[in-house]
Specification:
Immunoglobulin-like; single chain; Methylamine Dehydrogenase, Chain H; elongated; eight-stranded mixed beta sheet; five-stranded mixed beta sheet
């Protein structure tokens, strides 16, 4: 028996009913919008072999290239390169458990679980002895069953326990698992295994291996169990009762891969090589490639929450969405460009095509309308029925024709028509017919054309005519809008804003407002003496409007080159008053439109029937729209998918803490809408940073490039254009941790450091002042020492000589003169010593030898003056001492020698100079009377010489030692470092 004939004879309706109705053979399938995704659109590979939907709304697709998550617009792929849980990329089976967990079976990589944003693999370590997972099923008790190429497994406490191959259950290759109404588990693969509590029954086909290979099992709403095998399809009307292979095949010779019953009761049958069979209302439809499917090898079928049918094939993924719109064309199905659609009160919907033919909508097709022979071949542009029942036909260059019963009248320019290219008709209260043409306006009444004064007509090319409730005629033209009243065109300043615009559509609402559609300037409302404008800025889909109508619910319907739009008139009027946001519902390809290009420019460019259906001309046929009862609102939930901070992905959680960074943040968000994602709009705001909401449109990522550290809350709102007030929101707490230099402790630390620096600066300043004061004191002491060692000593010597000369003048004038000569010599010597000290301070010796010579000259002079023998001995190689040190040492040696001569009365003096390793040691000895050194040290009020000598030595970093005792002479030892 041929497969198609078998299906017709044996297939029965799936929903419960009184009895199987008679199948009437192939019929036109219900209208679905069609959308295909392949690897070029974002799928990893074209082979889509498993489908599931998780509670968050995402569609999950098992492909040969990995597991894919889909939100209606974007694909996100998971495979071994990005997720280690995938040991093999080919995902063959999917299941969403009742707790929302997603289970994925791979071809060779075992079982993968996705829960709370994390993947986990189950393989041999968890008891799964075969990695080719063909079926995953959750029974009513919540137990998970896993079917593989070699065995049936049950999940028990995170481990997989094999069920077949023991206790009388044969080993199986499992491809499908189902639980029937009686609670029995039906396992299909190598035959059929029925598990009923502790009992197991296995059935096999003796006909052929292909017949014994079960690929899919489903129980439908009427209680029938369907079993698909490689060789065909069986329907067990009362479920499994005995050997199912004893039941004849309903569909023979076809590899049935997958079965799916929809919520409407339709059965979808996916085959390998023959596409999809759909059983709907007792009728069947066969969908095949390339017209209906991307490929005839169908591997997966799934119905989502919005009743979209998803078909996974070897050539890509197909979405079939129940459409609110369908397209009617001729019986041959060839696309036909339509000019006008007119709702004729007598003959129903009349349709004119661009090729000049006149049709009538008859059921699901356009049927040619019979016309009198006199009108044969006439290129008809539009149609109009007047109140007297006459049918007016406008033509493309052949004037107008009037059909009344069997009679036909023709009107052209010869009969008084202003132009033979007719675009519009309307009838006034007096029964007269107004005719708009490409070249002006004509008025016909009682079989004749009246002469008109058209001086006030803004432009001659007419697109639309309207008689309002007050009886005024409005004329829409290619150059603006004019009003004809009381036999003449009336000047209206309100219409000046329309001058130069192409006006193609007019509609008067029940409140007396006139709605005006233009080509490029949007929609206008003339009401209460004011003209208001609406454009895409207020939410319209396009600024080009071909047709305007209003339904009983108060919605305006607009058409144009961007599709069909419905919008609440009240919303628009509120927007005109400056309040509210316009809710716009756009009908596009997702709603069943073959094309969004609606026709216009000729009256009538659409019809709204008494039933509320909309019929519109398009470039592909007549579009039939059944309006939705109410807007569906925003899809939920709104999800934050990913955060990228400074180029690094960050896991998304209830609250996110980010390491210190550069302030660059990307937030990827979405709202899952699988049917019409293009209608979703977003706005977002970062509380704590943004001053207002950012309107993102359809963009699903927020960018921040200079976000400082701190605590924020990111909020994103999603809504549909047809219901902006019904929005969903998701928020995410974000804490961007500061750099160490932005923290409070660092600021406090810096403040403390600044305080310490200020205190340290103050201390340095005080220390500098103290050093300067000490330097001043040292300078005073130095001057005191120098005065004592030079001027005072010299003056003392001169004074002694002068006094002696004064006393000797009476005794011996010769001695007096000699003493005066010595005094003069002492003065010269003091001056020379002062000059020598200045010279030494400025220059000093270069090798230390000059210092030895200076000491020798000093000793020689003192010896001559005092008649005391002074000996100088030097040991070791001399080295450079420096000018300041040499000057100080010379003054020290001179002071010591003078003290010895004046106070000790010695017979011998000696000066020893020993140049040691980087030190100079000086020893001055006399054999005089000596003195009590300890008593001299205690009496520091008068012995300035000893005090100055000690201070001078210590000031250059040296050591000073004085040894003396009465009658034992005096020893002065100095030790100073060489100049650095």
């Amino acid at each position: 028996m041929r497969p198609a004939l078998a299906l017709l004879l044996l297939l029965v309706p799936l929903a419960a009913s009184a009895g199987p109705p008679e199948l009437r053979g192939p019929a036109r399938r219900p209208d679905y919008s069609r959308r295909v995704w392949q690897s070029a659109d974002g799928l990893p590979e074209d082979l889509a072999q498993a489908l599931a939907q998780t509670p968050d709304g995402y569609l999950w697709i098992g492909t040969s290239g990995g597991l894919v998550r889909f939100d209606g617009l974007r694909f996100t792929a998971f495979h071994h390169a990005v997720e280690p849980a995938f040991r093999d990329d080919s995902v063959y089976s999917l299941l969403t458990a009742r707790d929302g967990t997603l289970w994925a079976g791979t071809e060779g990589g075992g079982l993968v679980r996705y829960r709370d944003g994390a993947f986990r693999s189950f393989g041999a370590a968890e008891g799964l002895s075969n990695g080719f997972v063909r079926a995953i099923f959750e029974d009513r008790a919540g137990l998970l069953w896993v079917g593989t190429d070699a065995g049936l497994f049950r999940m028990e406490r995170e481990r997989l326990v094999r069920v077949d191959g023991r206790d009388g259950v044969p080993s199986m290759s499992v491809h499908s698992i189902w639980q029937d109404r009686e609670g029995r588990l039906l396992v299909g693969g190598t035959g059929l295994l029925v598990l009923d509590g502790g009992r197991a029954e296995h059935y096999g086909s003796s006909e052929a291996l292909a017949d014994n290979s079960i690929r899919t099992i489903r129980e439908t709403a009427d209680g029938a169990v369907w079993i698909g095998t490689i060789s065909g399809l069986r329907r067990l009307e009362k479920g499994v009762r005995g050997n199912p292979f004893a039941t004849p095949r309903t569909l023979d010779g076809t590899n049935v891969c997958v079965l799916q019953q929809t919520r409407r009761g339709d059965l979808w049958i996916g085959t390998y090589g023959r596409g999809v069979l759909q059983v709907h209302g007792g009728r069947r439809t066969n969908m095949t490639a390339p017209a209906a499917l991307p490929h005839n090898n169908v591997l997966a079928l799934f119905e989502d929450r919005q009743e979209n049918i998803w078909v996974g094939t070897q050539g890509g993924l197909l979405r079939l969405s129940p459409g609110a719109a369908s397209t009617v064309t001729t019986a041959d199905g060839a696309p036909l460009s339509i000019n006008t659609v007119y709702d004729d009160p007598r003959q129903g919907l009349l349709v004119t095509a661009l090729n000049g033919r006149l049709f009538r909508v008859a059921g699901d097709v356009l049927a040619p309308l019979p016309l009198p022979a006199a009108l044969a071949g006439l290129p008809i542009r539009n149609a109009f029925r007047d109140r007297e029942g006459r049918l007016w036909l406008g033509t493309d260059g052949q004037g107008a024709a009037v059909v009344s019963g069997r009679s036909v009248e023709r009107y052209t320019m010869k009969q008084g028509l202003v132009n033979d290219f007719v675009r519009a008709f309307c009838q006034d209260r007096d029964g007269g017919i107004w005719i708009g043409t490409d070249g002006g306006l004509s008025y016909w009444r009682a079989g004749a054309f009246a002469r008109l004064d058209t001086a006030g007509l803004v432009y001659g090319s007419i697109r639309r005519l309207l008689i309002d409730r007050a009886g005024r005629l409005w004329v829409a033209t290619e150059g603006g809008l004019s009003r004809f009243e009381d036999g003449a065109f009336v000047a209206d300043d309100r219409l000046n804003a329309l001058r130069g615009h192409k006006v193609w559509a007019l509609h008067e609402d029940d409140g007396g407002g006139l709605w005006i559609g233009t080509q490029g300037a949007g929609l206008f409302l003339l009401k209460d003496g004011a003209l208001r404008q609406f454009t895409v800025d207020q939410g319209l889909a396009s600024d080009k409007i071909h047709f305007i109508a209003e339904d009983r619910a108060g919605r305006l319907w607009l058409t144009g080159p961007s599709g069909i739009v419905s919008v609440s008139r009240a919303d628009l009027e509120a927007r005109a008053a400056g309040a509210g946001q316009v809710a716009v519902r756009v009908y596009g390809t997702a709603d069943g439109l073959i094309t969004t290009q609606m026709s216009g420019g000729v009256q009538s460019a659409g019809a709204l029937t008494a039933a509320g259906d909309l019929w519109l001309p398009s470039t592909k046929g007549v579009v039939h729209v059944v309006p939705e009862a109410a807007p569906r609102g925003s899809p939920l939930p709104v999800l934050v998918e990913q955060l990228i901070a400074d180029g690094r992905p960050v896991p998304v959680a209830a609250g996110v803490r980010l390491a210190p960074g550069g302030g660059k943040l990307e937030i990827h968000y979405t709202a899952v809408e699988l049917r019409s994602p293009e209608r979703i709009r977003f706005k977002y705001r970062m509380d704590g940073f943004d001053q207002d909401w950012t309107a993102a449109g359809s963009r699903r990522v927020a960018y921040y490039t200079n976000l400082p550290s701190g605590r924020y809350r990111f909020r994103v709102v999603a809504y549909e254009t047809n219901a902006p007030g019904d929005a969903a929101e998701r928020s995410l707490a974000i804490e961007w941790q500061p750099h160490f230099y932005e923290t409070a402790w660092f600021v406090l630390f810096c403040g403390a450091c600044l305080t310490l620096l200020a205190w340290g600066g103050y201390r340095l300043h005080v220390s500098r002042l103290r050093r300067e004061f000490a330097a001043v004191l040292e300078e005073r002491n130095r001057l005191a020492r120098d005065m004592h060692d030079t001027l005072i000593q010299g003056c003392v010597g001169v004074s002694a000589l002068l006094e002696a000369a004064s006393h000797a003048e009476h005794v011996s004038p010769h001695l007096s003169h000699e003493l005066l000569d010595r005094a003069r010599g002492e003065v010269r010597a003091a001056v020379d010593e002062a000059r020598l000290a200045v010279w030494n301070l400025r220059h000093g010796s270069q090798d230390g030898v000059g210092f030895v010579e200076a000491v020798s000259r000093l000793a020689e002079r003192i010896g001559l003056e005092s008649q005391v023998r002074v000996k100088v001995d030097a040991a070791g190689p001399p080295f450079v001492l420096g000018a300041e040190l040499e000057g100080s040492l010379l003054l020290l040696i001179r002071e010591a020698l003078h003290n010895a001569v004046r106070h000790a009365g010695p017979e011998n003096l000696s000066v020893g100079l020993r140049f040691a390793r980087r030190r100079l040691e000086v020893e001055i000895l006399d054999d005089g009377c000596g003195f009590d050194a300890q008593a001299a040290a205690d009496d520091d009020g008068r012995h300035y010489g000893l005090i100055g000598m000690r201070e001078r030595v210590e000031s250059v970093g040296g050591e000073f030692h004085l040894t003396s005792a009465p009658g034992k002479g005096t020893q002065v030892r100095l030790s100073v470092p060489a100049a650095s």
